[in-house]
Amino acid sequence: MIAHWKVVRYLQGERREVMDEVAEEKSFKILLDGRLLATLNCLPAELEYLVLGHLWHSGVICHPAEVVQIEVRAGEIRVSCCPGRVSYPSAPSSPLQVDPGELFSLVEALDEDSLFSRTGGVHVGLWGRGGEVIFRTSDTGRYNVLDKLTGFALTRGLSPSELVLGFSGRLSRGVIEKVARLGTRLVVSPAAPTSGGLELASEQGITVVGFVRRGRFNIYTHPERVAF
């Protein structure tokens, strides 16, 4: 998932030509039963999770069993499915509660993503429970990361309301919309939220924890899920 690119580097007043590592990004057309649904620019990895999550968030499917086949060809992802009726019921209130140590552990795990540490060119997301990472993924697109997390949860039959979602990027309204649709109750990030994201999180009963770093964090909404 890494490409190499020749760069001219300025370092302490000196000019150098070196090979640098960059995140590999490819363009894929998603063809749903032969018709173009979308074109995604993404890492060429974990494409099945990406497609399942994208279909679910787009309202095309409500269960992975509705997808009959996913076939990856050069620049194309062909999907055959038999979709049912999609609805997004409100997630039930979750008894989920975490302590500060769990939050710090999950954010540290975001930083440990090898592709991010080598290139700095991807967003990272994860599912966590009890301070342990269940699944971690990365992509050049922030929404792609959330789609991959969704696809993983769908295929494994996990309940997002019982998990913590860790995300490396800022928590905008668009990000929180996907989080809310999943029924996730707690999202944590080393980055900042936006006012639109916080307004939606407050309305939907989602705990937002931001600026998690060096022994500190801010709880912006529904602080009752963080015990200290």
TrEMBL record:
What name does this protein carry?
Answer: Sulfur carrier protein FdhD
Q: According to its UniProt record, which residues of this chain constitute the active site?
A: C82 (cysteine persulfide intermediate)
Which HAMAP family does the record associate with it?
A: FdhD
Q: Where in the cell is it found?
A: Cytoplasm
Q: Which GO terms label this protein's molecular function in UniProt?
A: sulfur carrier activity; sulfurtransferase activity
Key words, A-Z: Cytoplasm, Molybdenum cofactor biosynthesis
- Assigned protein family: Belongs to the FdhD family.
Looking at the UniProt record for this protein, which Gene Ontology cellular component terms does it annotate, in alphabetical order? cytoplasm
User: What functional role does this protein have?
Assistant: Required for formate dehydrogenase (FDH) activity. Acts as a sulfur carrier protein that transfers sulfur from IscS to the molybdenum cofactor prior to its insertion into FDH.
Matches recorded under InterPro entries: Cytidine_deaminase-like, FdhD
Q: Which GO BP terms apply?
A: Mo-molybdopterin cofactor biosynthetic process
Q: Does the keyword Lyase apply?
A: no
Q: Where does Mo-bis(molybdopterin guanine dinucleotide) bind?
A: F211, V212, R213, R214, G215, R216
